[in-house]
Amino acid sequence: MWTNYITATTVDEVIETLATRGPSARIVAGATDLILEMELGVRKGIDTLIDVTRIPGLADIRKDSDGIIHVGPLVTHNECVASALLRKQALPLAQASYEVGAPQIRNRSTVAGNLITASPANDTIPALMALGASVLLRSVRGERTISLAEFYTGVRKTVMQPDEMLVDIKFPALDPKTARGAFLRITLRRAQAISVVNVAAVLIFEGSKISEAVIALGAVAPTIIRATAAEKFLRGKKLTATNIAQAAYKALKAAAPIDDVRSSGAYRRQMVKVSVQRILTDLSEKKQPARIPNKPVMLAMTEQGRTNAERGSSQHPIRTKVNGKDLEINSGHEKTLLRFLREDALLIGTKEGCAEGECGACTLFLDGKAVMSCLVPAPRAHGSEIITIEGLAHNGSLHPVQQAFIDHGAVQCGYCTPGFLMSGAMLLQERPKSTRAEAQQAVTGNLCRCTGYYKIIDAIQEASKVEVKT
After folding, report:
1. What is the pLDDT of residues 243-276, one digit of tens each?
2. Segments of 91-178 assigned E as strands
3. What is the Cα–Cα distance from 225 to 219, expressed in whole angstroms?
4. Whole-model pTM?
5. Which of 17, 212, 404, 410 can bridge 204 by disulfide, Cβ–Cβ 3.0-4.6 Å?
6. HSE on the CB side for 57, CA within 13 Å?
7. Where are the beta strands (DSSP E) in 367-432?
8. Which domains does the chain have, with CATH numbers?
9. Are 365 and 304 in contact (CB under 8 A)?
């Protein structure tokens, strides 16, 4: 799909490469959107990928002395979900991040990538817009800061130039004493779904009255829009049931949705009203909407963190450790990690179900995190540690999850089984004594076409009672 793959070690190297190669080069971090778009032919004319995941210092979430929160360009959605700072002072972003994909996707996908993809249905955009966020863009020509309100020009279109890199996302921290915010979306299923409608709201209070209101609506126009009439109406008022109902109706008037495969425009308009009414009602009761578990399943061992590696390129062999064995392979640079492992490393246990990050059959562990290998560029394996389904067994004994699948009849046709086993195994590594609810969270990114999931969940639960050998 690509000809050149560069593993960058500094931001300067990235922007110099962008300046030299122009529109034919793209930055990749999570790559969960870009690879799929290249596979489908949506993104054409790209021959160079610049991997920025090994650059130090780009994955921080911090608050500076002026009360501004900074989210680095390598911060993943799962890292936002886990951030105590964001949960306390930027809740809409944490909630929106939790709604993205499934744990395997959230372990790779970045907030910066979600912003740059510029889909009007992307969840973090309205959340960040409600928080008053801006982005810092850097190129060899210098830096510029642009508010999100000015960043978007149309469906999947931004003001960002081909030679620019997004290096920071920043917004004022919410004061828990005076500010309340939340995110809510309507979807056709509970996970792995694109929003039919999404809404983010931030309210600033003076006493019992609202001094400032921001309501951002997604998936109802070519870009994320503000419900300005509703915002204006709420200023100076209390959040009574009557005022909430009127604000919700005014928000409905701001929406201009289209009919598509997920919804009719008429349904979306009504869901704007419903969503705004729900979110304002939650905020009126001063409670945090229960949309994120207290300890959400990450399918990651966070202490392993990111690994640094020497600068790599398509001209170098891919040196990686798979299932404890060092491999050096000269081919497969232009493939996904899934196809590289199957076709070049000859490890065929990991399956390709959809090649779109939807089914989870290709789940494996990359540097201590469960990911969907169909959305990872193969050269990202350079300098990394990988565990596939072939590496789950230990000293000739099946992993407890593997044995439990046999004992509980959780294997049907077997095609999705490697992915379920990997998700279950990472859950037990993350939480040896997991609950049934946590097992259900763990497999939200895995689809089975044969069964109703009961035996799969039963098997993971049974395995949690067994000590896992490492």
Report:
1. 999 999 999 999 999 999 999 999 999 999 999 9
2. 134-139, 142-147, 152-154, 157-158, 165-172
3. 9
4. 0.95
5. 212
6. 4
7. 369-372, 385-387
8. 60-284 (3.30.465.10), 400-463 (1.10.150.120)
9. no
